[in-house]
């Protein structure tokens, strides 16, 4: 079964050549993109969709979410808006609500959040554990997450639960808890920050997880100039997320990780992606991450929603993109790229065509997964020009029309 989508005013491919095609068309065949080019040259297909002069871009790749939770933290948010500082301790409130929720309800909540994201143009997403924080509940979150998200990250090292010895808890995260979640996860993450895990504890967790075959990610430099970025670089993490407070040395270290990467070919050794989370920055009243400086230094950047009840209760990637343009000084093309190709790079899913079966996501090219986001607007510029507007018009995820 093939579908021709034609009369596309602007096709922002986010491919390796950064092509933006005008008066374009795309052919989807099953789950893959079979053809792209000028509408006038398009081949016939079983089915046709008239885009009506709208823009099409890759579906969002949300590379950082925490969707396995129950309850909300409205009171904490209100206190923050009244001047309180964000602190890691709020995680315990969500841990209690999550533990008290049945498997059925936790599954329903996670699936509902994924559906909400997809309806706004997200077609590939990562999510994390981290609100269970004991062996039973982390394993349960990992299991449910693996049924809801494309990739799952183990975040047992999110907070040391009250009354527990930090070193003993770190041992648990590195041992029995890791063993219990291992069948369900691809990545491991640590919250390396004052009030959460020290550099030494974080290193211990990351090394144990790497030994267990997991890729690494780090929550770092969110609340101050901490050791998270340097640790992520030292251990070859796929991404370091938040990155609000960076020294010149941090930026340089991140840039250095990309020296073996050939961006024009998309080959070589991937470095550590800096994942910026603008919705979180606004909700916690932290300075916006220096995405402009990171890009200028040669660092690959991703934008993600960080959807969670404590610091960023939104899955709107469009909001992140408009904020990145309006306030972080990225061009529309750079912001969309960070929210698509950048996220895919952070999840090691930016490459792969017909031959290897793992189709690339986050860009539009022949052989890639047919993840498309049609806007009810003639260009992607409208994402920033009309911030907050419901611009998602149609969504295809792995070739299936979702909206
Ligand atoms: N910073 C650490 N973890 C989450 C927030 C956790 C929470 O407060 O519930 C984040 O990415 O912002
Ligand atoms: Zn997070």
UniProtKB/TrEMBL annotation:
<dbReference type="InterPro" id="IPR006680">
    <property type="entry name" value="Amidohydro-rel"/>
</dbReference>
<dbReference type="GO" id="GO:0050480">
    <property type="term" value="F:imidazolonepropionase activity"/>
</dbReference>
<feature type="domain" description="Amidohydrolase-related">
    <location>
        <begin position="196"/>
        <end position="377"/>
    </location>
</feature>
<feature type="binding site">
    <location>
        <position position="64"/>
    </location>
    <ligand>
        <name>Zn(2+)</name>
    </ligand>
</feature>
<keyword id="KW-0378">Hydrolase</keyword>
<dbReference type="InterPro" id="IPR032466">
    <property type="entry name" value="Metal_Hydrolase"/>
</dbReference>
<comment type="function">
    <text>Catalyzes the hydrolytic cleavage of the carbon-nitrogen bond in imidazolone-5-propanoate to yield N-formimidoyl-L-glutamate. It is the third step in the universal histidine degradation pathway.</text>
</comment>
<feature type="binding site">
    <location>
        <position position="219"/>
    </location>
    <ligand>
        <name>Fe(3+)</name>
    </ligand>
</feature>
<keyword id="KW-0479">Metal-binding</keyword>
<feature type="binding site">
    <location>
        <position position="222"/>
    </location>
    <ligand>
        <name>4-imidazolone-5-propanoate</name>
    </ligand>
</feature>
<keyword id="KW-0408">Iron</keyword>
<feature type="binding site">
    <location>
        <position position="131"/>
    </location>
    <ligand>
        <name>4-imidazolone-5-propanoate</name>
    </ligand>
</feature>
<dbReference type="InterPro" id="IPR005920">
    <property type="entry name" value="HutI"/>
</dbReference>
<dbReference type="GO" id="GO:0005737">
    <property type="term" value="C:cytoplasm"/>
</dbReference>
<dbReference type="GO" id="GO:0019556">
    <property type="term" value="P:L-histidine catabolic process to glutamate and formamide"/>
</dbReference>
<dbReference type="GO" id="GO:0008270">
    <property type="term" value="F:zinc ion binding"/>
</dbReference>
<feature type="binding site">
    <location>
        <position position="66"/>
    </location>
    <ligand>
        <name>Fe(3+)</name>
    </ligand>
</feature>
<comment type="similarity">
    <text>Belongs to the metallo-dependent hydrolases superfamily. HutI family.</text>
</comment>
<feature type="binding site">
    <location>
        <position position="73"/>
    </location>
    <ligand>
        <name>4-imidazolone-5-propanoate</name>
    </ligand>
</feature>
<dbReference type="InterPro" id="IPR011059">
    <property type="entry name" value="Metal-dep_hydrolase_composite"/>
</dbReference>
<dbReference type="GO" id="GO:0019557">
    <property type="term" value="P:L-histidine catabolic process to glutamate and formate"/>
</dbReference>
<feature type="binding site">
    <location>
        <position position="64"/>
    </location>
    <ligand>
        <name>Fe(3+)</name>
    </ligand>
</feature>
<dbReference type="GO" id="GO:0005506">
    <property type="term" value="F:iron ion binding"/>
</dbReference>
<keyword id="KW-0862">Zinc</keyword>
<feature type="binding site">
    <location>
        <position position="219"/>
    </location>
    <ligand>
        <name>Zn(2+)</name>
    </ligand>
</feature>
<feature type="binding site">
    <location>
        <position position="306"/>
    </location>
    <ligand>
        <name>Fe(3+)</name>
    </ligand>
</feature>
<feature type="binding site">
    <location>
        <position position="158"/>
    </location>
    <ligand>
        <name>4-imidazolone-5-propanoate</name>
    </ligand>
</feature>
<feature type="binding site">
    <location>
        <position position="308"/>
    </location>
    <ligand>
        <name>N-formimidoyl-L-glutamate</name>
    </ligand>
</feature>
<feature type="binding site">
    <location>
        <position position="310"/>
    </location>
    <ligand>
        <name>N-formimidoyl-L-glutamate</name>
    </ligand>
</feature>
<feature type="binding site">
    <location>
        <position position="131"/>
    </location>
    <ligand>
        <name>N-formimidoyl-L-glutamate</name>
    </ligand>
</feature>
<keyword id="KW-0963">Cytoplasm</keyword>
<keyword id="KW-0369">Histidine metabolism</keyword>
<protein>
    <recommendedName>
        <fullName>Imidazolonepropionase</fullName>
        <ecNumber>3.5.2.7</ecNumber>
    </recommendedName>
</protein>
<feature type="binding site">
    <location>
        <position position="311"/>
    </location>
    <ligand>
        <name>4-imidazolone-5-propanoate</name>
    </ligand>
</feature>
<feature type="binding site">
    <location>
        <position position="66"/>
    </location>
    <ligand>
        <name>Zn(2+)</name>
    </ligand>
</feature>
<feature type="binding site">
    <location>
        <position position="306"/>
    </location>
    <ligand>
        <name>Zn(2+)</name>
    </ligand>
</feature>
<comment type="pathway">
    <text>Amino-acid degradation; L-histidine degradation into L-glutamate; N-formimidoyl-L-glutamate from L-histidine: step 3/3.</text>
</comment>
<dbReference type="Pfam" id="PF01979">
    <property type="entry name" value="Amidohydro_1"/>
</dbReference>
